[in-house]
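seq:
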Amino acid sequence: MRSLTTVSPLAVTVLRMRRIQPACRLRGLDASIAPTGPQRAGGTTLSVAQTSVVHIASRVARMEYYALSHDVIIEEERMSHESAATGHLPVPPLTQLSEEEELFRHNVRQFAEERVRPLVKKMDEEGKFDPGLLQDFFRLGLMGINIPEEYGGAGSSFFMAVLAVEELSRVDASAGVVVDVQNTLVNNAITRWGSPALKAKYLPRLASDTVGAYALSEAGAGSDAFALQCRAIERGDHYVLTGRKLWTTNALEAGLFIVFATVNPELGYRGITAFLVERDFPGFAVGKKEDKLGIRASSTCELILDDVPVPKENILGEVGKGYKVAIETLNEGRIGIGAQMIGLAQGALQCGIQYAKERKQFGRPIAEFQAIQFLIAELATELEAARLLVYNAARLKDAGRPFVKEAAMAKYYASVVAERVTSHVVEIYGGYGFTKDYPAEKYFRDSKIGKIYEGTSNMQLQTIAKLLLGER
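struct:
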């Protein structure tokens, strides 16, 4: 058998990508970019089309693929058997990705660089998400990552959604949160709690062209999320919703909203019910759009419900069980926010490192000064620890194991690290970091929201402490 060390890496890449292709079904991302990120001489990244597996195989690896497929499979099986025979099966690192995950991450990363980055400054200044970019999200399947295939989604894992949020946020946190809310909150809630009829009606739309939003918070119901004033009154085959919602992410673009209202205030949290409300329902309107410090391209709006009739079949879960939908969905959503925070922190740190290599003071790059070196080392270490927390929480969720404490830890620590990393990157840039001509200030502004939405840092600490102390 030919030694694998003498085989063209490109041929092995093609082989492995073809072997995993049935599991890699994100529309437009199906093995369309080589995971090794091929480049032209001079470092220019090739386009998506130029790096397609079919294109590469036809030029370089087609013959080797057929000659080596059997050898590669046998070699991998031999190594597996040897490990099993010795009783020392290798435990993979926590950050190790499967081939499918690595390919997916590379695809999203390249898309973010090629398509998102050129729009970041304009979207931030205008406070508006680019409509064409949103269409690209749908076209590539990024808005339906965890929607089952039978409903037009990718049928992939929660962890895949986390990877997408991380990679998009490395370039723009607004892009990351658009995908995050869609997947970890809206799609997740309907997939888990929706009736067969609701799934069949709404999941195909969410996978193809409809943005979703999650409306829980009100003026008097923030951290005390169940102090809702929004009412739902039963009338025949409908419930009529009246009230106001605040801080609703994706509201400007959304066509479908998960709205929480109480059917009976005297029942407290046991009166809370979740409803699916379409944008064109009579009496429903999107109100004021907030002018925010950070994630400015992501819309955050007030919702106005003025006697909105909602069919009973649009109840998500059961009447009076909306609190359960809200709590359990947010537990999962917090992992997504953790991914957003580590993504933007990584993007900021990369910018800071590059600037430190280029900026000269006292006749040499500032990266040669120990103060800068130690700072970068500390920030990178903290960021890696945050990433491990986020990945572990996501893996636990996918494995069906308890993850609430780990999700709270991931969101809490990732938010702390993101704010610290981005703040220090501004300082690495010095005066330039305080201007809008460089990316550092935007990363810093975007990081602040991590300690606030989907449960403040204090609420995460309270959750962690209660679970550690045995309170339920």
